[in-house]
């Protein structure tokens, strides 16, 4: 039996029993789930009372309509994969109408420069699309924690900036890249690679690892030149960008500072399929 | 695993898991607990997830300062009694300061006439005091259901009116009078009766039962006259009032209507101790 003598103590107790603190973990995805997504799910399950996973191919973040059409859609298989990890997941697989309510357009955001680098430069409008859908999903799910893979490191930083700007009470958690044994970063786009392409795509991570070693003694521009030359020799690769940037601002590294954390970013076409990867240089 | 395709369905589900509906039952008392109070507690325990019982001798509802001083205060014994029924009760035993915060005065209410009858007429300011403390306690506890004994039937109607006027989302539940085997209505004031007075006080309920029978064939004023004469013959009783009134409005019954429910109300002094009782006449 509990006895309270002061209303403030009673009120606190009644609040704690009336509205118990429930944490909701959220893993937004575009489906075509792979081990990288499942790792995010497992983290969310571990740290939250409930986990919501959304599966939604967001049209406004595709700058290329062919890419949007070709993006793999595998809902039934995705649901099987989720079930194999946990029956406790709450799946949200909305239609475009349910999210955009007839107006499939992006809101315009000021991400304070983060959106002008790399993916933002090469995929115009991409991060406005990401911001629009993430904001919408956060409003719907109201998560305590939301999980994003570090493969899309720039997106992770953009989402952190988004909740800061909008003052949304969501904790953004970045999860390290899940790689195959041969080093290829898990990506839904890997499904579009042939077996031979998948094999040669392992070169991307090997180059990143080499770049990391070189960055110990060489300048960012020397490392970049070496990476570009390495891809020039490969006929089935077309390098879109390789950049060494400050992790916080995503601005290119001109002169190394020991007070900053750096990261290498790469986008490369393996024939028709565009892949991205990243590695911490610290 | 749950799958949602529409945000409205997902939101509903998340709401249900984030803020589960918890019902709080509330039994406000002035302590000196008896079986009547314990019956209220048991009703609350049965129908709510949590039960709060307050023990607070409310100064603003006493029109007579001697009555306030003499009102029995038995917190330790009350707590033992509560424990014997359930360890699950949340007890709230505030100080006058905690409730009134330095201003021990009543708010003035318009209970649409209910406050001008019987107890209201004989105890000036009583129902403003009741309204003030019940409003305050409801604000603190925020109960789903609040339990009141029908012995204080006028108070029960006043409290129902209070939540109606203030639009407080509290369901007011009236619980029938608990009587000893000899018919005496349980009351904290019974503690102030001697054994002999307690024995003679059983007359009150006997008179009420007789009145009920007489009301089948006689008019309200005929029954009232008979009750008054019955008490005139008793030297240790002083009748304050006996009234037959409409249950809903508490207005005296002038001419019986078969569309109304009537109830007899009595207040009587047994030597120094004022007792009240009531009986349904239908």
- Supply the CATH superfamily name of the largest domain in chain A: HUPs
Order of the strands making up the biggest sheet of chain A? 4-3-2-5-6
Helix content of chain A: 40-55%
Strand percentage of chain A: 15-25%
* Overall pLDDT metric of chain A: 95
Total domains of chain A, how many?
A: 2
CATH top level of the largest domain in chain A is Alpha Beta
Largest interface: A-B, 38 and 38 residues
By CATH, the topology of the largest domain in chain A is Rossmann fold
What tags apply to this protein structure?
globular, 20% strand, Pantoate--beta-alanine Ligase, Chain: A,domain 2, homodimer, 9 strands, 5-stranded parallel β-sheet, alpha/beta, 282 residues, Rossmann fold
Structural topology:
The structure is a homodimer of 282-residue chains.
Chain A (H helix, E strand, L loop, with lengths): L1 E3 L2 H12 L5 E6 L5 H13 L2 E6 L9 H6 L4 H11 L4 E3 L3 H5 L17 H5 L3 H16 L3 E5 L3 H14 L4 E5 L19 H20 L5 H13 L4 E10 L15 E9 L2 E8 L2
Parallel strand pairs in A: 2-3, 2-5, 3-4, 5-6
Antiparallel strand pairs in A: 7-8, 8-9
Helix pairs in contact in A: 7-8, 9-10
């Amino acid at each position: 039996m509990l006895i309270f003598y002061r209303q403030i103590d009673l009120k606190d107790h009644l609040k704690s029993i009336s509205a118990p603190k429930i944490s909701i973990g959220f893993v937004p995805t575009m489906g075509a789930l792979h081990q990288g997504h499942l790792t995010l799910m497992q983290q969310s399950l571990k740290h939250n009372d409930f986990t919501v996973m959304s599966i939604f191919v967001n049209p406004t973040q595709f700058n290329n309509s062919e890419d949007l059409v070709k993006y793999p859609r595998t809902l039934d298989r995705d649901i099987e994969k989720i079930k194999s990890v946990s029956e406790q997941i709450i799946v949200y697989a909305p239609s475009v109408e349910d999210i955009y309510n007839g107006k499939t357009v992006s809101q315009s955001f000021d991400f304070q420069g983060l959106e002008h680098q790399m993916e933002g430069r090469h995929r115009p409008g991409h991060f406005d699309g990401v911001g629009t859908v993430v904001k919408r999903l956060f409003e719907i799910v109201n998560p305590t924690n939301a999980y994003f893979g570090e493969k899309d490191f720039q997106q992770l930083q953009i989402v952190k900036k988004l909740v800061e700007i909008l003052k949304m009470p969501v904790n953004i958690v970045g999860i390290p890249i899940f790689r195959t044994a041969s080093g290829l970063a898990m990506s839904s786009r890997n499904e579009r690679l042939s077996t031979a392409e998948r094999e040669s795509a392992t070169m991307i991570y090997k180059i990143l690892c080499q770049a990391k070693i070189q960055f110990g003694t060489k300048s960012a521009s020397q490392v970049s030149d070496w990476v570009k030359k390495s891809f020039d020799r490969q006929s089935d690769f077309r390098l879109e960008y390789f950049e060494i940037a400050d992790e916080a601002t995503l601005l290119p590294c001109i002169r190394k500072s020991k007070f900053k954390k750096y990261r290498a970013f790469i986008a490369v076409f393996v024939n028709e399929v565009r892949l991205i990867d990243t590695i911490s240089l610290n």
